[in-house]
UniProtKB/TrEMBL annotation:
Its EC number is 3.5.1.47. InterPro entries: AcetylDAP_deacetylase (IPR023905), Amidohydrolase (IPR017439), Bact_exopeptidase_dim_dom (IPR036264), Peptidase_M20 (IPR002933), Peptidase_M20_dimer (IPR011650). Catalyzes the conversion of N-acetyl-diaminopimelate to diaminopimelate and acetate. Pathway: Amino-acid biosynthesis; L-lysine biosynthesis via DAP pathway; LL-2,6-diaminopimelate from (S)-tetrahydrodipicolinate (acetylase route): step 3/3. Gene3D superfamilies: 3.30.70.360, Zn peptidases. Belongs to the peptidase M20A family. N-acetyldiaminopimelate deacetylase subfamily. Signal peptide: none annotated. This is N-acetyldiaminopimelate deacetylase.
Amino acid sequence: MNRFVDIRRDLHQIPELGFEEEKTQQYLLNYLHTLPQDRIELKKWRTGIIVKMKGLKPSKTIGWRTDIDGLPITEKTDLPFSSIHEGRMHACGHDFHMSIALGVVTHFAENPINDDLVFIFQPAEEGPGGAEPLMASKELKAWMPDEIYALHIAPEHPAGTIATKPGLLFANTSELFIDFKGKGGHAAYPHETKDMVVAASYFVTQLQSIVSRNVDPLDSAVVTIGKMTAGTVQNVIAEHARLEGTIRTLSPEAMMKAKARVQALLKGIEASFECESEIDNGSGYYQVFNDPAVTDRFIQFAKAQTDIQFVHSREAMTGEDFGFMLKEIPGMMFWLGVGSEYGLHHAKLNPDEAAIETAISFITRYFTALGHK
């Protein structure tokens, strides 16, 4: 079996949440220290790692970013290498991403190219967000790439497939947490209370008007409430209610509009139900916008490979904090087909491991072509 499949399985067993990836970081460091060190420099940034590989005759620095955190999901795959961390799972493919990145690092440690390479093992992609503070760090600023690349697994495409497009690939995203506070009391005396189940329910209904009546029909947006909690027992009117959700848009302008409408609707709810509300927008991710020139060059290379099936993808409402890197550095992201019956963030996600070798081989060939020009 391919050693990077073994590595993927090792990493799959130890998923950790954002900025808690201590075992993951140590595993990666242990492996990186086994490679020839004559051209490698390592830096730690919080629970992440930055690796610089010196080129033979550098004229630029090519970057590769991988995310390393897991999700708060209880795994249900029944695989022999399932997560040993209760309530944690690599359900978004970051175990794949890391093993692929290590494969690429290994190749270039043994086969250097002219240009410098920087590999970023970034924590906290799933939250609270690692890319934005990493971009501001002195560690990365010292080794800032001139162009940068990343991938994300795509369960809907079979192994051997690569998909991307120039321009917008992933949406702008924002978390949404809203608390309502009223007055509780006995269910038999509703007139003496301020019922926050009713207030929150009305608000969820009103949110549905944002996309249909406030966003340009030629633009796109999603406003979703995924969790609602209120009350303590069936015969007590709830004094507090909490909503948790997400906003996703294809343009920064639509995001600003959606957030403004949420605030306006909340003021109406406060007046209508004589309650108080508090909103927290949590972490927000900037859109993933693929540099057209960089992406066109990548697509032409991918189409010329006999072992790759290239697919022109559409933009998606997926969120990715790699967008903060692409905001500052020319680059692009692509989907890697992994053919899983279950999708991203599902407890039974089981990607095809054949995609690991496919990705390592493709990326090393592409970087070799770039780095020898």
